[in-house]
Design brief:
single chain, 214 residues, alpha/beta, 8 helices, 5 strands, 9% strand, globular
């Protein structure tokens, strides 16, 4: 069994998960390492509701397969839109994303504090499309609200983690989304596609299905 160091050698870990493809390698590694893992799904940014349900249900399916507790947090999408007001035209990795990470991590840190988790981490940083430093800053800032909580900024991309994300997604036949998640990333992704003469994203269509059509 592989072992790796957690902050203060804690064994109970709360994992903020954004989707099954991204969190899969983290779940697999922590599960195989004998850590006591709980998955926390809080992603009010994901739009539309159909997309949100697809991503959440894939996460639940994998959690149930491994016997890992899954916490389904509220989909308070109107709060997310209120926080995003005025940031509608901001680019990916900009201040809107910082707001989004802060919102999700603050809720995760609160849950950790209320349920006696000393450490939480997130699957958001494993994607090469994300700014890991930006995500880790948000995680640490959120954890700082509670003196008993530490954000674990482990680099889940290293040691083949990034490649394992794609391998495991194929093995488990995960639904693999075609955009980051929010209505604005969907808009920008579709604008880019139109500029390249490609069809707009069909909600529910996976990355594999699109490749087969190409």
């Amino acid at each position: 069994m592989e072992q790796f160091n957690t902050p203060n050698d804690e064994k109970r870990i709360l994992l903020h998960s954004c989707c099954a493809p991204c969190s899969g390698p983290l779940i697999e590694k922590m599960h195989e390492s004998g850590l006591e893992l709980t998955i926390f799904f809080y992603n009010p940014n994901i739009h539309p509701l159909k997309e949100y349900e697809l991503r959440k249900n894939e996460n639940i399916r994998y959690a149930e397969k491994l016997g890992i507790p899954f916490v389904d947090a509220d989909y308070d999408v109107q709060d997310w839109f209120a926080r995003a007001k005025g940031m509608e035209q901001e680019p990916e990795r900009g201040i809107r994303c910082t707001m989004c990470f802060d919102m999700r991590f603050l809720r995760t840190a609160l849950y950790a504090h209320e349920h006696d988790f000393k450490v939480f981490t997130s699957s958001l940083g494993i994607s090469r499309w994300k700014n890991m430093e930006q995500i880790n800053d948000c995680g640490k800032r959120s954890a700082a609200h509670y003196p008993d909580i530490t954000y674990w900024d482990y680099n889940w991309r290293k040691d083949g983690g990034g490649a394992r994300m794609y391998e495991l997604a194929k093995e488990e036949n995960f639904y693999q989304q075609l955009y980051c998640g929010c209505i604005y990333s969907l808009r920008d992704s579709n604008n880019w596609r139109e500029s390249k003469g490609r069809e707009k994203i069909t909600i529910g269509e996976t990355w594999y299905e699109e490749k087969l059509k190409a």
